[in-house]
Amino acid sequence: MSDRPVRLAVIAVLLLAAVALPFVVPTYYVQFASKVMIMGLLALALNLAVGHGGMVSLCHAALFGIAGYVLALSTPKYDPASLWLTLPLAVGASALVALAIGALALRTRGVYFIMVTLAFGEMLFYLFHDTGFAGGSDGAYVNTKPEIAIVGHALLDLEKPVTFYLVVLGALLASLMLTGMLVRSPFGHALAAARDNERRARSLGFPIFRVRLTAFAISGALAGVAGYFAAAQFGFVAPQMLGWHQSATALVMVLLGGLRSVAGPVLGALVLMGLEEVLKALTVHWKLIEGLIVVMIVLALPNGARQLLTLAFGAPAEAAPPARAEGSAKVEAPAAETGHG
User: Fold this and answer.
1) Is residue 217 included in any domain, yes or no?
2) What is the distance between the alpha carbons of residues 56 and 107, in angstroms, rounded to a whole number?
3) Which domain holds residue 273?
4) What is the pLDDT of residues 270-279, one digit of tens each?
5) How far is CA 29 from its chain centroid?
6) Are 91 and 221 in contact (CB under 8 A)?
7) Over pLDDT 90: what percentage of the chain?
8) Number of domains, the chain
9) Which of 96, 124, 228, 263 gets the highest tally of CB atoms within 10 A of its CB?
10) Which pLDDT tens digit goes with each residue over 220-233?
11) Do the beta carbons of residue 98 and residue 162 sit within 8 Å?
């Protein structure tokens, strides 16, 4: 019997629960859930590069922070900015920076790629930290949340926690669908082939550099979406948003959720941030305990927390892209060769 009806039922229940959540819990938990979704979106963006592309990046926090700074710098002092204008501007800035970093970093491999992305991330961190155009080390404020309006009439008031939550939920769902379509498309199979066996994929005609650079730029754009909403939620941006530790936190979320999973990183964000929230209320040594629990989870669930869904329902949580480069290359080589033209 096919597991598809079960998976669809689980997805429908989770979606209904997510939509109903802000109407049944206190405001604090609505804001916390919004924060979890924003960080889940950052982890989702990073996983497109790391899990699906094999590109371990430590500069995604910089792409995340750049979008936040774009919002802060483009918001009037006393009036709300237009979401229709500032969101594409912020996402475009993150994508362009990702494109520039990727064009240079993708000429390296392995640990050298990691170090180059780390170096670019730190350069951007100190650019905002040591210069005064964006507030320097003190950061900058976003006094009012962006406004969704048409011909001067506000459609949604993002100052309301429930409205903000639903908009972020919509952005997360759209990003999940986009990522799912990408990894299951010929492009995603080419990316997986390059990850699993670059030499074989190159010999079969895949444009490796172009595929990886495109994936890295899309990943940067999604990180920009997360950074934009993070700045809008907290009303403040600071250089710490661009620090490598933020990238490392997102990477932990990816590992907790599952490297080859589409929705797994969002689950990883929920696990990590939920664990942090509980432990903070119990002990001042929560960091130590959190680290031990994370290690135990990774050892017990090598495929991430999504493995729990497999155990619960007896079927994979979602269809993963081909694990072997040979299979991917054989199926999709004609599409890749056509891409040269």
Assistant:
1) yes
2) 14
3) 30-339
4) 999 999 999 9
5) 21
6) yes
7) 60
8) 1
9) 228
10) 999 999 999 999 99
11) no
